[in-house]
Amino acid sequence: MGKYQLDTKSKVAAAKYQDGKKPAVSNKKDKINQLREAYLQKKNEKKQSGK
């Protein structure tokens, strides 16, 4: 058994808190990927216009 034991009310609160934290990370990853794609597209457009 762990050092701290949660009752059912606390378990629900902890699960809700953890669920609220998960999307922020995936949103950050999605945003970074979108920015990266936009940067690469701009870079490719500059290459093509420079030729």
Report on the structure:
The chain has one helix at residues 8-50. With 51 residues, it is mainly alpha-helical. 0% of the residues are buried.
Short description:
By secondary structure, the chain is mainly α. The chain has one helix at 8-50. This is Alcohol dehydrogenase.
Which descriptors would you attach to this protein?
51 residues, 84% helix, 1 helix, mainly alpha
Percent range for β-strand residues = under 5%
Number of helices: 1
Task: Round the mean pLDDT to the nearest integer and report it.
Answer: 80
Extract low-pLDDT stretches. Answer: none
The SSE order reads H
The biggest sheet, with number of strands, parallel, antiparallel or mixed sense and barrel status, is: none
Indicate the structural class: mainly alpha
Gyration radius (Cα, Å) is: 22 Å
Categorize the overall geometry: rod-shaped
Kindly state the percentage of residues in helix: over 70%
The count of DSSP E runs of length 2 or more, i.e. the number of strands, is: 0
Span between termini: 67 Å
Biased composition (Basic and acidic residues): 1-10, 18-32
Protein name: Alcohol dehydrogenase
Organism: Exiguobacterium mexicanum
Region (Disordered): 1-32
